[in-house]
Design brief:
Order of helices and strands: EHEHHEHEHHEEEEHHHHHHHHH
Protein name: Iron-containing alcohol dehydrogenase
Domain Alcohol dehydrogenase iron-type/glycerol dehydrogenase GldA: 10-177
Radius of gyration: 20 Å
Helix content: 40-55%
Shape: globular
Structural class: alpha/beta
Distance between the termini: 39 Å
Largest sheet: 6 strands, parallel
Keywords: Oxidoreductase
Domain Fe-containing alcohol dehydrogenase-like C-terminal: 189-379
Number of strands: 8
GO molecular function, one term: metal ion binding
Number of helices: 15
Bound molecules: 5,6-dihydroxy-NADP, zinc ion
Strand order of the largest sheet: 1-8-5-4-2-3
């Protein structure tokens, strides 16, 4: 194991009725001006907005709405939120949504405390914000695990880059599986595939033999696959949704990553594909994973074989990769670029740009060349 410092920054309230039971107490230690942040309106339709707002007002909070946070949140949206937070002297940000709303709020929280351009500060000067407004998260769509970590993925439309930024983790996260009841089936499955991807990407980084992270990652993969299969049979199975909600947080709360390096090359490809196409994150990963793994399966044969056996009941490393591809198909997830919802036509020229601009992971099973990345992307056409 490599050296590490680990701390859980986020208090979790899990279970049906968690907001009613715990939200008032969770926000009681913060000032009265609360920014209530959400996406394109699902929380208004399903009643979560009304329930949360009422709890906040009954707790004596003055609520300011920050809404229309889009999937794959943009840096421009972050600036809008930060300006609003400054203007309204916001004391606390409550993000109510999926990974997009939570990520946007994490960076709003930091940008509200500085006049410096956070993107330049982080990406060019490699300095990270030391101060941020406190924030909490109520998860309404699971998969990213954004509610329990200090990273955020933001799209800079001007620069055509979608990248991870450092921020403060939410002080608390409310995880009520019932709050996900209205999430459409395809989003539930896409989110769950993102969780599976996080566990696989962590597992395929370099690690000491027999380390516990690999064991936990495999357990999360197995549990995610089992519960995705349950949802394929009955999408309203709330027990399966609850299991996946916690798998999601577990895969990205940092516990799997201590003392080791991670891979996350598929994520780097997907993020840059997202910068050009605005595709759904979990669906982009579903398209990319099998092609990427066919390229690196020989470089981590032992690990691939173990995954094949333990997660998919397949015998060999290669059979495991094909079992993953079959599982993606059986879930109804996209398997080709052309099946992704995209703002532009996905052409070889677009994929060349993605290959030329995505992050290349220097460790993982093997460092890829930009030409090989282009080949992988083209194999997904
Ligand atoms: O905007 P609304 O109307 O709320 O609709 C959303 C959105 O269309 C809908 N939704 C959410 N809760 C719902 C609901 N619809 C009905 N009922 C509900 N209860 O779901 C759609 C997708 O939401 P979004 O937040 O975009 O999805 P997801 O949670 O998959 O987040 C994706 C973003 O997270 C980033 C991704 O790159 C992407 O930008 N990631 C963040 C990570 C992190 N911070 O740790 C790690 C991940 O690898 C990922 O990169
Ligand atoms: Zn992800």
């Amino acid at each position: 194991m490599q050296k590490f410092v680990y701390e859980y920054a986020t208090k979790v309230y899990f279970g049906e009725g968690a907001a009613k039971e715990h939200l008032a107490a969770a926000v009681s230690g913060y000032g009265e001006r609360v920014m209530l942040a959400y996406g394109g309106g699902s929380v208004k339709k399903n009643g979560i907005y009304d329930e949360v707002k009422q709890i906040l007002e009954a707790a004596g909070k003055k609520v300011t709405d920050f809404n229309e946070i889009m999937s794959n949140p943009t840096y421009a949206k972050v600036q809008e939120g930060a300006n609003l937070a400054k203007k309204e002297n916001i004391d606390f940000i409550l993000a109510v949504g999926g990974g997009s709303v939570i990520d946007c709020c994490k960076i709003v929280a930091a940008q509200a405390k500085t006049d410096k351009d956070l993107w330049e500060m982080e990406m060019t000067d490699h300095q990270f914000p030391s101060d941020a407004l406190p924030m909490g998260a109520i998860v309404t769509a699971f998969g990213t695990g954004a509610e329990m970590n200090g990273g955020a993925v933001i799209t800079n439309e001007e620069k055509v880059i979608k990248a991870g930024m450092a921020a403060a983790a939410p002080r608390f996260a409310i995880l009520d599986p019932a709050y996900t009841a209205s999430v459409p089936k395809m989003q539930v499955i896409s989110g769950a595939f993102d969780t599976l991807s996080h566990a696989m990407e962590t597992y395929f980084g370099n690690s000491d033999q027999d380390n516990v992270s690999d064991e936990v990652a495999l357990a999360i993969m197995k549990n995610t696959v089992v519960n995705m299969k349950r949802l394929m049979g009955n999408v309203d199975d709330m027990q399966a949704r609850g299991n996946l909600m916690w798998d999601s947080a577990m895969a990205e709360n940092g516990i799997l990553k201590v003392g080791r390096v991670t891979d996350f090359q598929a994520h780097q490809l997907e993020h840059q594909l997202g910068a050009y196409t605005d595709c759904n994150h979990g669906q982009g990963l579903a398209v990319l994973h099998p092609a990427y793994y066919r390229h690196i399966v020989k470089d981590a044969e032992e690990k691939f074989t173990r995954l094949a056996k333990e997660v998919f009941g397949a015998e060999t490393a290669k059979a495991g990769v094909e079992a993953l591809a079959d599982f993606i198909k059986a879930c109804g997830l996209p398997t080709k670029m052309g099946e992704l919802k995209s703002k532009v036509e996905i052409t070889p020229e677009v994929l060349r740009k993605v290959a030329n601009t995505c992050n290349v992971i220097k460790c993982g099973p093997r460092e890829l060349s930009r030409d090989e990345i282009y080949d992988i992307l083209m194999e997904c056409m």
